[in-house]
Amino acid sequence: SSVQPFGLSDDERRPPSSDLLEVVQRxxxxxxxxxxxxxxxxxxxxxxFERICEQPEYYLTRCEIALMDEHAADIAGVLGSGVxxxxxxxxxxxxxxxxLQHLHEPVAYVPVEISPEPLRRSVExxxxxxxxxxxxxLCADFSKPLRLPIPPRAPRRTVLYxxxxxxxxxxxxxxxxxxxxxxxEMGDAGxxxxxxxxxxxxxxxxxAYNDRAGVTAEFTLNMLARLNREIxxxxxxxxxxHRAHYNPMAGRIETHIVSRREQQxxxxxxxxxxxxxxxxxxxxxxxxSPEDFATLAARAGLAVQxxxxxxxxxxxxxxxxx
Length: 322
Ligand code: AVJ
Fold this sequence. Notes:
Elements: H1 10-13, H2 20-29, H3 43-52, H4 59-79, E1 83-88, H5 93-102, E2 108-113, H6 116-129, E3 138-139, E4 157-162, H7 172-186, E5 191-197, H8 202-208, H9 215-231, E6 240-247, E7 252-259, E8 263-267, E9 270-274, E10 279-286, H10 290-299, E11 303-309, E12 315-321
Parallel strand pairs: 1-2, 1-4, 2-3, 4-5
Antiparallel strand pairs: 5-12, 6-7, 7-10, 8-9, 11-12
Helix pairs in contact: 3-9, 4-5
Bound molecules: N,N,N-trimethyl-histidine.
N,N,N-trimethyl-histidine binds at residues 52, 60, 164-166, 168-169, 209, 216, 283, 285.
């Protein structure tokens, strides 16, 4: 197999342990209550997210694929030859494949993903399509400093690929911190190829997070099912609801889990009280104008070298350099 975790110990191939119970107790003890959005992505959550991407209202994935379909060759030209491609999140193999197909003499592909199963699957899919390309999976939290595996030969540049508008899950300050960390990892000659969802008619944005089939609601509430299973809490799923509204001032979707009634939930030894209609903040999905994104990049010491969009200008892929 071409899966070669060069220079990695067993330890580094396992996800970092985080004390889930502690994270959840802290978040539910805060006012307002909040839980981090990475908690969505257990096995079932990742599968539900893939189903979200197929919903007619969820334009992001379709538009990003349309964009890659039209511009992948141009993007590959801008990145140049001898690229080591490091992807943040194992991602949708489809977009990655479109990019890898056009890259000139790529040195290695390094998917960075916190969940071992999705990581294994994405490597499996890509290994079959690119038998010559060294794959160096890294099971790690991409928001923490990474120790990238030693490449099989010296790359001309390291490009960090961060598609899907996942950057939108971080508020502005956190996003700038993450981009600055990425700037360190890519080095002087490196770059960041990043997907950013664009501002548009709020009705279209809201619909994308409130699909008629209810898949997004299921995805949101799955976080509680995951906690019940993994930390033994006793959330009653039918006593909570999904809510996603666009906040035009902040330029973002704000997703909450709302308590349908007054109730108490046991989380470890702690009893967490909920008022009727009390909300847990679980996700931001920030939307950017091209100017917004350039400002964010500048805060991280980066400049936007190129911007590509789909024909309807719904979504953007941007190339950031030092
Ligand atoms: C994968 C983070 C880009 O915010 O649009 C989709 C996650 N949440 N529907 C997004 C998500 C609800 C998605 N990202």
